[in-house]
Amino acid sequence: MSEIKVEQFPIKLEVEKHLKYLKELNNHQDELEYWLSEALRLNGIYWGVTATYILDHPEIYDSKEISKFILSCQNEDGGFGGCTDHDSHLLYTLSAIQVLAICDTLSEVNKDKVVKYVAKLQNPDGSFSGDEWGEVDTRFSYCALSCLKILHRLDAVDVPKAVEYVKKCMNFDGGFGSVESAESHSGQIFCCVGALAIVDRLDIVDADKLGWWLAERQLPNGGLNGRPEKLEDVCYSWWVLSSLSIIDRIHWINKEKLINFILSCQDTETGGFSDRQGDMVDVFHTLFGITGLSLLGYPNLAKVDPVYCMPVSTIERLNIKTRTYNQI
Amino acid sequence: METVTEQEWADVERTLQDEGPYSVVPISYSIEYSEKMDILRTLMKNNEKSERALKLTEEIIAMSPSNYVIWKYRQEIVKELNVDLKSELDLFTNYAKENPKCYQLWHYRQLIIEKLNDPLNELKFIEEMLKGDDLKNYHAWSYREWIVKHFDLWKEEFEFSTSMVKYDDRNNAAWNYRFFILSESPYHDINEYLKDEIEFSKQKINFDPTNPSPWMYLRGIIEKSKYELAEFADELLPFCEFLQRNEFYKYALEFQLKVNESILKTLKSEKEQEQQKDICRSLCSKLEEYDKIRRKYWKFIRESY
């Protein structure tokens, strides 16, 4: 395994600028309309906090204050809303649990209530709804299983049924979609492969076929797309790369070209990453640019776990490691 | 759209958003939106289900349709006030056109249609959404699959997939849909269609051998049928070779490899197997050369025989 060196690439990772960007998100209000709506608040905190940990500068945010705010978003039903006074949803419940886990403040949350909330969202066919409104999607299978595993409470749901549903969403090309028969999509693949890894059922995946489909996502400019004939996007460096890592096929793509692509999506003046070069930066793409680089073995970054998208140090502390994943 | 006026909402207290003591992730919506949300929070707390609440939810949806909190509340009001669901669907058709990637808008349609137990003109609507915005819109295709399954509307859909593939043969979503029809529909037997589908894929490949979708479809449809790729070797290997009489095509080489791997599985004698493995290895070597970015993948496959 050749070691990645900063000097190999025409531009370097602008760590200081990204930290400044993350710290000063308050001052970027006009630029962040894409994700800055209150309903997404907890996701935003998860993206920002995780990014600072992978940049190895967790001190950027005050974890006590963050935890306090997160806890204030828990509702009577046990789930978390996207912000205070918002209805519970699995997407934000997972973000909340992830941030508390990263900040090591999980002991402050009423875990039984969270577990009850998540378990209630499992449907008879094994799938999960995102909230009581009922939308079903393999994203929610991942959210539910990840959340319960972090809380060491997988026993609260029917895991074989959950696996059965994810399996039904596997396609002829080896990939997975949002529901049965839906087209294979890199983001959904991450959710399905991640969910299967969490419950130790990767045997279901046809790793060579899926690995081929994922490797096919790399375009001549080094970037990765989400589906055939779509444009490259930094967030797919995470969805595709983490999936390849989980099935042990990360070496099938060209890492130098991908690192180059990810680095080219930084705004070297303001900090932050955009989906592709020249677009507006946001915290979502900033996280996935940084986690992608970490998975690719870029120097001086904390290691990220491909299954949970949290720092490896957190996963080790929680004692929920599925196994050790090789970096390239 | 009317803005929030002091008079209209004079009787409603404002429930302000708690930003938390340390605003890690700030909120940047307009003052108008924020005022509407303050009022909405109060209405939700009081569980008010009224015409004005209905109107307010629409105003907020118009500004931020992906704010998931609004939708469940609106649904409850609609139920309470007995709002005509067809007009509700019509109302949101325009918002759907403006926000074609909004999860909530699609899910809301599905709930209404499920409740009405009538597919109405949704197939037409989806077609318009695909053609008007993004032919690959993931939500639109998934929703179409749901409608077709739920209301048993399979019969015309094979033709629809043909028209969509013809409309843009690089639209992988349309190919995936065609595969869905032939593999799931109770009215279509994949084995009966196989011969025609091989022909259809070959036509599209001949037109543009660098288009990945028909190659993927061709392989998928044969593997899904009762046959093996090897059983079509006499037809498909010469097809790939003829295609590459002047230059190599990555997907053609890949396909040749898949057919040859399928043949390998049928061979009994070790000598024959070894010869067949040589063919596979040499195809991998070519792929290492012509698909440089995935060189390590092809090397892995070559060394795996």
UniProtKB/TrEMBL annotation, chain A:
Catalyzed chemical reaction(s): geranylgeranyl diphosphate + L-cysteinyl-[protein] = S-geranylgeranyl-L-cysteinyl-[protein] + diphosphate
Keywords, sorted A to Z: Metal-binding, Prenyltransferase, Repeat, Transferase, Zinc
Entry GO CC: geranylgeranyltransferase-III complex; Rab-protein geranylgeranyltransferase complex
Textual note on the cofactor: Binds 1 zinc ion per subunit.
Gene3D superfamilies: 1.50.10.20
Enzyme Commission number(s) of this protein: 2.5.1.60
Tagged with keyword Ribosomal protein: no
Ranges of residues in domain Prenyltransferase alpha-alpha toroid: 13-310
Gene Ontology BP terms: endoplasmic reticulum to Golgi vesicle-mediated transport; protein targeting to membrane
GO MF terms, alphabetically ordered: metal ion binding; Rab geranylgeranyltransferase activity
InterPro entries for the chain: PGGT1B-like, Prenyltrans, Ptb1, Terpenoid_cyclase/PrenylTrfase
Keyword Transmembrane helix: no
Enzyme class, broadest EC rank: transferase
Tree of life domain: Eukaryota
Cofactor(s) this protein requires: Zn(2+)
Entry's family note: Belongs to the protein prenyltransferase subunit beta family.
Function: Catalyzes the transfer of a geranylgeranyl moiety from geranylgeranyl diphosphate to both cysteines of proteins with the C-terminal sequence -XXCC, -XCXC and -CCXX.
Protein's name according to its UniProt entry: Geranylgeranyl transferase type-2 subunit beta
Source taxonomy: Eukaryota, Fungi, Fungi incertae sedis, Chytridiomycota, Chytridiomycota incertae sedis
UniProtKB/TrEMBL annotation, chain B:
Keywords, comma-separated and alphabetical: Magnesium, Prenyltransferase, Repeat, Transferase
EC number: 2.5.1.58, 2.5.1.59
Domain of life: Eukaryota
GO cellular component term of the entry, any: protein farnesyltransferase complex
Keyword field contains Magnesium: yes
Gene3D superfamilies on file: Protein prenylyltransferase
A GO MF term: CAAX-protein geranylgeranyltransferase activity
One Pfam family hit: PPTA
Leader sequence segment: none
The protein's required cofactors: Mg(2+)
Repeat listed as a keyword: yes
Membrane-traversing stretches: none
Enzyme class: transferase
Record family assignment: Belongs to the protein prenyltransferase subunit alpha family.
Protein name: Protein farnesyltransferase/geranylgeranyltransferase type-1 subunit alpha
